[in-house]
Amino acid sequence: xxxxxxxxxxxxxxxxxxxxxxxxxxxxxxxxxxxxxxxxxxxxxxxxxxxxxxxxxxxxxxxxxxxxxxxxxxxxxxxxxxxxxxxxxxxxxxxxxxxxxxxxxxxxxxxxxxxxxxxxxxxxxxxxxxxxxxxxxxxxxxxxxxxxxxxxxxx
Length: 155
Fold this sequence. Notes:
The protein is of the alpha+beta class and 155 residues long. It has six helices and six strands, in the order H-E-H-H-E-E-H-E-H-H-E-E. The strands form two sheets. The chain has a three-stranded antiparallel sheet. Strands 4-6-5 form a three-stranded antiparallel sheet. The radius of gyration is 16 Å and the shape is globular. The relative contact order is 0.13.
């Protein structure tokens, strides 16, 4: 519960990893994963499925209205998360703000700059997949739109 309170919204895989590390366990198997999932059901949390991710958050969380994002910052004690540890809505929020600041951006520039925001020097299969999922998610929410091969703020 403490991890969820401190880090929510958090991708389920990262949550389970952090809990297991706290217990001194380095690897999660199928039985342990099922046990963790059952323990999670007993907590008062919001579970949201978005783009192949299970996101765990505190009560009251709504991915459709969530607008924050957390970037790596050593001064604040925040660490760089792996691509599969970043919730899609969080990345979508950063992308929406990035496009809003630049007014218009081609897809490849959006992907590259968003990846840099989250501490990735360059893209890769996992990073590009996440950035594209977040771009699609922001578009489906009506926050950005594609026009003539570039992304612009909606409205």
